[in-house]
Amino acid sequence: MKLIASAVLALCTAAPAYAANTFACQNVKDYGALGNNATDDTAAVKSAFTAAAAGTIVENGTTISKGGCVYFPAGVYVVSSTITVPDRISVYGDGEGGVLGPSDDSPGASVVRGTMNAPILNFANNRFTLRDLGIVGPNNPAYTSSVCVNVGPKSAFNFDILHVFVSACYDGMLIDGAFNGNLHGVTAQRNHHNGIRALSAQGSWNSINVTANGGDGVYIGLGSINKTASPWITNLQTWDNGGYGVNAQEGGLSLTQFFINNDYLGGIYVGPSALSVQLASGQVQYSGLTSSHGTNASAAGIKFADGYSSHAQISGLQFFDDQGNNIDIASAHAHVSIASSTFLGAGRGGIIGNQYAIKSVGEEMTVSGINTNQPVMFSGRFSTWGNSWISSNSSLPTFHVAGGTNHAFTGLNIYQNSTGKAFVSAPGTSYTIAATQVYGGSQSSGVALSSFNGSP
C-alpha cells in the first residue's frame, strides 16, 4: 500500500479538485500482479481495486468518503476481463511511455493490456483521475466491443484523464454521457475504429493526439443521455486516420490551435444535426492523402453536410493541398463566417468541381481578410465579402457568383492567371461592388470596379 499526499499530487499537473490530504493507494503488485506481459494478472488487479474501494479519502483530517487509488508500477499487466473501477477510485501508473501496440512497449512504462472483446478499464463512476498509463487492446478488428478506456454511460462526472495512451482497441476511448471531464496529454493511436468517441461528453480537452486510427480521429455525437453536450478542444493533432480527423455529427464543435492533416475522408466534417461551430487558429492540410489508407481525391479540408442549419465561425486557419475543396458548404441553410484565413492549394485530387478554396451553397456567408490561390464559387441567399485577395491559376473562374440576389463585395482583389475568367456571375444574380480590382481572364487588366452588376 502506498500513501498519496496532496502535497505530492500538487506537484503533478492535475491533482483533482477533490483530492484529499491523504488516501491509501493500492499497489497491484502487492496483490500478486507480475506485470511481465505474459501472466494473466486479472485476479490480482481486481483485488487491488476491491481493496481501494474499501479505503477512505481524508481531507484536512476528516474522512469525506470511501475511495482511494490503484497504482500500476512499470510493467505490462495482462487482463482477460473488464476491470470495473469503483466510485471515487483513481488509477495511476509510472508513465504511458511510447506504447505502440500489444508487444512494442517502452521500458519504464505502465501498461494494461487487454486480451478480450470487451472494455479494458471501465469507469462508470465519478470523481476520478486516470493518469500516466498505457492501455492497449487485443489488436483484433473483429472485436468490436473492445474499448481501451470506457467512461460512462450517463453517470461519470468531474474526472481527469492525463498522459494516457490508448491503442489496438476497436475504439481507443469511449466517453458517453459524461460531464466536467478533462483530458490532457491523451494519445489514441492505431485503434481499429475511432481514436476517441465522445457521446454527449462535456469538458475541456487539451493536447490531444489521434493518429493512424481506422475510423475517425475524434467522433462527436449524441450518447445515452441524448443531450448535445460536447467538449472544448485545444491543441489537437490528427494524422493518417481512415475516417475524418474530426467528425462532429451532433452537438457543437469548439476547436482551437489544431493541426489536422492527412485524414482519408477529410479534415473536419460537420454533420446535418451539429450545432454551432467555432474553429480558430489551426491548420488543415493534405486531406485525403494518407500513408495507411490510400488517397481520396474528393476529401475536403472542412465539409459542412447538406442539412446543417446552424452557425459556424472560422478564423485564423491555414489550408494547404487538400485533395478536394478546402471548405465545402453543401447545405443551403448554413450560416458561415470566414475570416483571416489563408488557402494555399485545393483540388489536388484533380476532380472537376472539387478544386475550390471555398465552395458554398450556404444561405448566408460572411468572408473577410482571406488570401487564396484557388478559385471560389458560391450561391445562397446573400453574402458579404471584404478586404480579400483571391487569385487562381485554374481554368475555372476565379470568383464565381453562382446564385443569390443579395451579395456585397468591397475591397477585393481578384486575379486570374490562367485561361479562366476572373469574375463570373450567373443569370439572375445581383450584387453591389466597390473598391474592387479584377485582373486577367475576360476582364481588362488594371480596371477598377466601383459599381458593377453583371459579368466582366
UniProtKB/TrEMBL annotation:
GO terms for molecular function: lyase activity. Residues 27-260 form the Rhamnogalacturonase A/B/Epimerase-like pectate lyase domain. Residues 1-19 form the signal peptide. Keywords: Lyase, Signal. Pfam families: Pect-lyase_RHGA_epim. This is Pectate lyase-like protein.
